[in-house]
Design a protein that fits this description.
heterodimer; A: alpha/beta; 7-stranded mixed sheet; B: Rossmann fold; 2 domains; 5-stranded parallel sheet; about 10% strand; globular; Probable beta-1,4-xylosyltransferase IRX10 (chain B); glycosyltransferase activity (chain B)
Chain lengths: ~500, ~400
């Protein structure tokens, strides 16, 4: 009984206080004269004051529930939602700014008996530490991997073959840079992989330590000659090294698709998907990134730029019926006489006519008695010289399969960038023992530096002073410049604030 | 010799099932409660008579506002068009099993496109007065063999606010009719026993046009785009979505596995195809078109709405396809989702990849076999034959025509 009166007056109160000047309901201003209503008005005011003081919404609802019995069916007590005002109005004023928090208002939770979902205001459940759990993140990543594996199985290449990657390399400054790039690409390949690394100058710890981090199956072989210093000689030696690797494929009877990944090239992941389509011998388009460095003749340069506006591409050329019709090769004429000869020349490095990396072949072509080997393949052991590109292995170049939608997709890029021949680098890129000469920087807190003694300070200051003077010069010049623009009465403060800011 | 023979037979029988079994690893057949119910053909199993109402109930309303054809309540309009040209339509009402009244009750839109339900009760009431006076079939059963499509927020309660809707309850004159509605929640006033729950309308051409190649790897773990707080209508929080969406935001806004935000990206459909789980939490009402989008794009729906009744629940085993999370378990959503075994996830994806599943959620124009229109007819056919008790003695009245708020009784 009393409860219903309380409810009733509460409802009146609430709808009164949140009504705006709309033509919505009528009158209830006249109803405020009853003592219960006055009591609630006073209580409301009291709660407002308490809320202002405390800073969160101290709702009368708490009182309501303190004094109510538990047998009320909360489901039927209609709390007027503010959505009623949605059509006509603006946001009603909220007493405080704490709408979303861990207020576990003991309101309207499910009445357990008939598991009804209740309308009304619910608390927003936030767990105590709403941040990701690393173990669950790892589980989620495993789920994602499994789903993607399934997707590849369903939509990707059927029966993927193992990929045999041949990389010639040698120890030099940029080896770590190039080889790490290739290594990371190979680590991402979703197929079985064998990486044959042939190293000029013999097997070294540098290379071995680099490729050990890859996690793919590697065959590391040394080649007894040292890498010469000219680009021509280098590419000849690389061809020999690649043939050495092909002999390994033959000896071990490795089964799969052989591709040539030079250590300074860049490969896209689509390349590895595309080469799975090769039957016997395929060719892809290689983008040639030629560093046209140090050309001072502006007129010639402009002409060159117009002609070579697109990136030159080496690879198969197809006719209208998507059959192999010829080859795109790199136009070396503009660079005739200006190309680099030695490895550390700063001139442009030119590629060969057709790079090895643009070709892939089925490893069965290299086996001694491959059985169903086509007859247009030459035996490696029967080669009477060195070959410049894998086309030397085929008697009839028209059998080559163009890949990558007939050469239209560029799937890898060729680049040759090397450091000077006399450049040094720390072995295995580890600085050991630590460097001895250290200069403390003025701004960085240097934890091991001793407290500044005047005796020690002199030489240090001696080095730093010119630097300090220089910066203060620039500072004052800047502030003077600025203060000139500002109003005169404020110059002094401007200058001092500038100093303090910059300090 | 004999042993060899038996061994051979044994091996042959062992292999035979595996050879003859259809090995289609990409999809899996959904077995509904009564066999492959999704592929049933309703033609021949029921007959529907479509009342000819004056165009002020349907065509004129649509002419006034053609936006009704593309919003999520458009099912009522397309159902009418489908029935007009369907094989189940009969022009002879005496042989009809079901009677359909074409009223576009949800087509009164605000300038921003939200439907106002204030006139709908009067409209329905006036239509029913018309059909009960012009044809004898309403009075014969007081509507028990009639069905109405009421795709609004809370179905035939005709209000967008849940409390008001509950107060009004289902329109009294529709108490005996079968309601085809999008709203479904157990133990709720606005879901009548025997109603057919349908998916909200989602534009099929738009979705088909934005398909990406299926080999694109799914790299988003959980995806959601939408509001978490409805600042205009619920500035304090706690009312909208019963606090569940706000809980999702507060608990997982820092979690990189959850790609959730309130933005409206242009790549929404493409992103869904790159996600493994798509959240479908309740909003002001428990249903949402996200479920349809998730099913069409192969993203496992994570349904956060207590006691919700999903579309065609008697034909589609939603428990096997989606993940249900109770609203109180939202803070543990990441634990729940990561602890699902990968085989279960792959199975759900295979079930979702089934084309009949995707078709059943859509309302294509023109209708295709197995689509949502046919599922509605299947649902109606499953309710046949009508019980004899629905046929009332002449002159007997069960419905109270004057029940309900006074405003509803005004003529339309």
């Amino acid at each position: 009984m009393k409860l219903s009166v309380l409810q009733q007056s509460y409802l009146n109160r609430r709808s009164n206080s949140f009504r705006s000047s709309g033509p919505l309901d009528s009158s209830s201003d006249s109803a405020i004269k009853s003592p219960a209503a006055i009591f609630w008005l006073v209580l409301h005011g009291l709660c407002c004051l308490i809320s202002l003081v405390l800073g969160f919404r101290f709702s009368r609802l708490v009182f309501f529930f303190l004094f109510s019995t538990s047998s009320t069916n909360f489901y039927t007590s209609p709390f007027r939602s503010t959505a009623e005002l949605a059509k006509t109005l603006d946001v009603r004023s909220v007493l405080s700014t704490n709408p979303v928090s861990n207020i576990e208002l003991p309101l309207l939770n499910k009445t357990a008996m008939n598991s009804r979902v209740v309308v009304g205001r619910h608390g927003i459940r936030i767990r105590p530490w709403p941040h990701p759990n690393p173990i669950e993140v790892m589980k989620a990543h495993r789920i994602i991997e499994r789903v993607q594996k399934e997707q590849r199985f369903q939509f990707g290449v059927k029966d993927p073959r193992r990929v045999i990657v041949v990389t010639p390399t040698y120890v030099r400054t940029f080896q770590a840079l190039h080889l790490t790039g290739v290594m990371h690409s190979l680590m991402l390949v979703p197929y079985d992989l064998v990486w044959i690394v042939v190293e000029a100058g013999g097997v070294s710890n540098e290379t071995a330590s680099l490729i050990a981090k890859s996690g793919v199956k590697t065959i590391h072989v040394g080649f007894n000659q040292r890498m010469p210093n000219s680009w021509d000689e280098r590419s000849k030696l690389e061809s020999k090294m690649r043939l050495r690797a092909l002999r390994i494929v033959r000896e071990k009877k490795l089964d799969g698709i052989v591709m040539f990944a030079d250590d300074s090239n860049m490969h896209s992941m689509e390349l590895f998907d595309e080469i799975q389509n090769v039957k016997w011998f395929g060719a892809v388009s290689v983008g040639i990134l030629v560093n046209a460095a140090n050309t001072d003749e502006t007129a010639d340069q402009k002409k060159d730029e117009e002609e070579n506006a697109r990136m030159p591409v080496q690879g198969p050329a197809c006719n209208a019926s998507n059959m192999l019709a010829g080859w795109h090769t790199f136009n070396t004429l503009p660079f005739a006489g200006k190309s680099a000869v030695y490895i550390d020349d700063r001139a442009t490095v030119l590629p060969r006519k057709l790079e090895w990396s643009g070709f892939v072949l089925n490893s069965r072509l290299l086996w001694k008695d491959g059985g169903d080997k086509p007859e247009w393949i030459r035996d490696i052991d029967m080669l009477d010289g060195d070959i410049d590109s894998p086309l030397g292995l085929v008697k009839d170049p028209s059998v080559v399969e163009p890949l990558g939608s007939c050469g239209r997709q560029v799937l890898l890029w060729w680049l040759r960038v090397e450091a000077r021949a006399d450049s040094k680098f720390p072995p295995r890129w580890i600085i050991d023992p630590p460097l001895e000469i250290t200069i403390p920087s003025k701004r960085t807190p240097w934890p091991d530096a001793p407290p500044e003694f005047p005796a020690n300070e002199k030489p240090v200051i001696g080095i730093q002073e010119p630097i300090v003077k220089h910066t203060t010069k620039t500072r004052t010049s800047r502030s003077k410049h600025r203060s000139k623009r500002k109003h005169e009465t404020r110059t002094d403060t401007q200058v001092s604030t500038r100093h303090s800011e910059q300090n | 010799m004999g042993k060899c023979f038996w061994a051979f037979l044994f091996i042959a029988f062992g292999f035979a099932p595996s050879i003859t079994a259809e090995h289609n690893p990409r999809t899996e057949r959904i077995s509904g409660s009564a066999g492959d119910v999704l592929e049933d053909d309703p033609v021949g199993r029921l007959k529907v008579y479509v009342y000819e109402l004056p165009s002020k109930y349907n065509k004129k309303i649509l002419q006034k506002d053609p936006r009704c054809l593309s919003h999520m309540f458009a099912a009522e309009i397309f159902m009418h068009r489908f029935l007009l040209s369907s094989a189940v339509r009969t022009l002879n009402p005496e042989e009809a099993d079901w009677f359909y009244t074409p009223i576009y009750a949800t087509c009164d839109l605000t300038p921003t496109g939200l439907p106002l339900p204030f006139k709908s009760p009067r409209m329905v009431r006036s239509a029913i007065q018309l059909i009960s006076s012009s044809w004898p079939y309403w009075n014969r059963t007081e509507g028990a063999d009639h069905f109405f499509v009421v795709p609004h927020d809370f179905g035939a309660c005709f209000h967008y606010q849940e409390e008001k809707a509950i107060e009004r309850g289902i329109l009294p004159i529709l108490q005996r009719a079968t309601l085809v509605q999008t709203f479904g929640q157990r133990n709720h006033v606005c879901l009548k026993e025997g109603s057919i729950t349908i998916p909200p309308y989602a534009p099929p051409q738009k979705m088909q046009a934005r398909q990406i190649p299926p080999e694109t790897p799914r790299s988003i773990f959980v995806y959601f785009r939408g509001l978490f707080y409805d600042v205009n209508n619920d500035p304090e929080g706690g009312y909208y979505a019963r606090g569940a969406r706000a809980a999702v935001w507060e608990n997982f806004k820092n979690n990189l596995l959850f790609d959730i935000s309130t933005e409206h990206p242009t790549t929404y459909y493409e992103d869904m195809q790159r996600a493994i789980f798509c959240l479908c939490p309740l909003g002001w009402a428990p249903w949402s078109p996200r479920l349809v989008e998730a099913v069409v794009f192969g993203c496992i729906p994570v349904i956060i709405a207590d006691d919700i009744v999903l579309p065609f629940a008697d034909a589609i085993p939603w428990e096997e396809i989606g993940v249900f999370v109770a609203e109180e378990d939202v803070p543990k959503l990441d634990t729940i989702l990561t602890s699902i075994p990968p085989e279960v996830i792959l199975r759900k994806q295979r079930l979702l990849a089934n084309p009949s599943m995707k078709r059943a959620m859509l309302f294509p124009q023109p209708a295709l076999p197995g689509d949502a229109f046919h599922q509605i007819l299947n649902g109606l056919a499953r309710k046949l034959p009508h019980q004899k008790s629905i046929y009332l003695k002449p002159g007997k009245k069960i419905l109270n025509w004057t029940a309900g708020p006074v405003g509803d009784l005004k003529p339309w």
